[in-house]
Amino acid sequence: MTRLRLAVIGVGHLGQHHARILSEFPDVELVGVVDPNPEQAAAVSQRCRTRAYTSHEALLDCVDAVSVVTPTIYHHSVAAAFLRRGVPVLVEKPICRTVAEANELIDLAHLAGVPLQVGHIERFNPAFEELVRRPLTPLFIEAERHGPFTGRSTDIGAVLDLMIHDLDLLLSLVGSPVRAVHAVGSPVFGGHEDMVNARLEFDSGCVAHVTASRITVKPKRRLRVWAAEGYAGIDFVSRKLILVQQSEELRRYGLRLERMDAAARARLKDEIFGRYLETLYVDGDRKWDQLTAELRHFIDCIRTGSRPRVSGEDGRDALALAERILESVRNHRWDGSADGPSGPSRLPKPAGRLFELPRTQSEAA
Ligand code: NAD
């Protein structure tokens, strides 16, 4: 089998892992890594035994595909340059800054007849893969994505940085248009929203509460789904899935409390999980690493010509929903009045401090 010539454009925190993994695929030749920071490009190229470049232009005509892992503001210009040459592109999430830019990439990929994949990596999380294998009619979903402030991705806020992962998962799970969006958000360090909460209503009747924060000490990435078929809970960090469903007995006869004597009622607490509610735990932690799975999928799509699991259209739809959330965040009026504080940049003035720090010994001396 001929080896596909790949390059990684942008080898910072995440791109260096794209480069490492691609350099280890036997059917791939990593022909180069690109980063305007020459030390970073050199360090990663040495580790991956490939060449370093400081601009993607040098590689336009000598690659079969690229992975674009630059800051979001450059996704469009870099990805478009390769798609115009008919080169398949994997672009990190969010696909672009605007839906118009995303549509342009989609059109270029269609015109060239090549795959455009978007790096919504949680779709390759083993726990999520286990979930989507099963029939599920979501009624209510709660998604939480909290992490510490990293100082990276400061060109975007928490919606495009973190929440976009869950927006893509929700759209793929519910499969119905979103009819209403209500969201609030607040910056902590200035610039963009660092905390955000959105309530989404789908045409199907499903409701989702989605929260993202990039200033939380302990990382948390969870999805909980109440569905017609039962309950599903995913911990994306530990890659574990829990499924709960009604037993045949419960479905057929209900709980029939009125027929229970005192002894049967006393046993109920121990019998709820088991006799009435069946539980399945799926541990995906020992399964594949999702970045490897995502990159492998990209290579397979190039070879087979099949549509990527997370297509340009999927990336665009998640971005379009993110834009609606950001608009709702901007328009939120904190005191209800037309000229009062509104949105993330005009918050109500703090009424006071929550607490006073204890005086240090030196201050007290
Ligand atoms: P980073 O700042 O650590 O790395 C970005 C790198 O790109 C830097 O080394 C920078 O010098 C380089 N760069 C800047 N402009 C460039 C250009 N024009 N051409 C080539 N390289 C350029 O950021 P990061 O955390 O690695 O994030 C990169 C992208 O990956 C972002 O789009 C981010 O949203 C995405 N991301 C996705 C996930 C995920 O879970 N899928 C996680 C983290 C980051």
Short recap of the structure:
The protein is α/β, with parallel strands linked by helices. Helices cover 35% and strands 24% of the residues.
Give an account of the 3D structure.
This protein has 365 residues and is α/β, with parallel strands linked by helices. 35% of the residues lie in helices and 24% in strands. Strands 8-9-10-7-11-12-13-14 form an 8-stranded mixed sheet. The structure holds nicotinamide-adenine-dinucleotide (NAD). Nicotinamide-adenine-dinucleotide (NAD) is lined by residues 9-15, 34-37, 40, 56, 69-72, 74, 78, 92-93, 119, 121, 152-153.
Q: Can you write the helix and strand succession as a string?
A: EHEHEEHEHEHEHEEEEEEHHEHHH
- How many alpha or pi helices? 11
Mean pLDDT level: 94
Structural class: alpha/beta
Task: Kindly report the spatial arrangement of strands forming the biggest sheet.
Answer: 8-9-10-7-11-12-13-14
Helix content bin: 25-40%
Radius of gyration over C-alpha positions, nearest whole angstrom: 24 Å
- Number of DSSP-assigned strands: 14
Helix and strand topology:
Elements: E1 4-9, H1 15-24, E2 28-34, H2 38-47, E3 52-53, E4 65-68, H3 75-84, E5 89-92, H4 99-112, E6 116-119, H5 126-132, E7 138-146, H6 158-174, E8 178-186, E9 195-202, E10 207-213, E11 220-227, E12 230-235, E13 240-246, H7 248-253, H8 262-276, E14 277-283, H9 290-304, H10 312-331, H11 361-364
Parallel strand pairs: 1-2, 1-4, 2-3, 4-5, 5-6, 7-10
Antiparallel strand pairs: 7-11, 8-9, 9-10, 11-12, 12-13, 13-14
The structure holds nicotinamide-adenine-dinucleotide.
The site of nicotinamide-adenine-dinucleotide (NAD) has 25 residues, from loops.
